[in-house]
Each structure stands twice: as structure tokens, then as C-alpha cells.
Amino acid sequence: MKTLFIILVLIALVAAVIATYMIRREQENNIGNKFLRLIRKFDSWQMMR
């Protein structure tokens, strides 16, 4: 009974770590995309000048 509980807790912890890793990676990608968009806007603004 105890070992089953420990295994379930470990599985929940591993799932939480994987979820946070995936979410963090997605947020980093969004930040990178925003940065690239800003650079493109700046480039187009320079062209118009």
C-alpha cells in the first residue's frame, strides 16, 4: 500500500516537471517570436525612411 502511494506521488511529480518544462519552452518561443517581429517592424520602418 505504501509503495503504491509513493509510486503515484512520484508519477505526479514527474508529470508536473514535464508540464512546467513544456510551458516554459513555449513561453520562450513566444518571447523569441515577439523579438523577431519587433526587429522586422524596425527594419520596415528604416526602409520607409
The strand count comes to: 0
The class by helix and strand makeup works out as mainly alpha
Average residue-wise pLDDT:
86
| Envelope shape | rod-shaped
| Structure annotation, total helices | 1
Distance between the termini: 73 Å
Q: Uncertain runs with pLDDT below 50, 5 residues or more?
A: none
**Helix/strand order:** H
Describe the structure.
By secondary structure, the protein is mainly α. It has one domain. Helix content is 96%, strand content 0%. The protein has 1 helix and no strands. It has one helix at residues 2-48. The model has no long low-confidence stretch (mean pLDDT 86).
Please sum up the structure shown.
This protein is 96% helix and 0% strand. It is an all-alpha fold and 49 residues long. The longest helix has 47 residues, at 2-48.
List keywords for this structure.
49 residues; mainly alpha; 1 helix; 96% helix; rod-shaped
List the helices and strands and how they pair.
Elements: H1 2-48
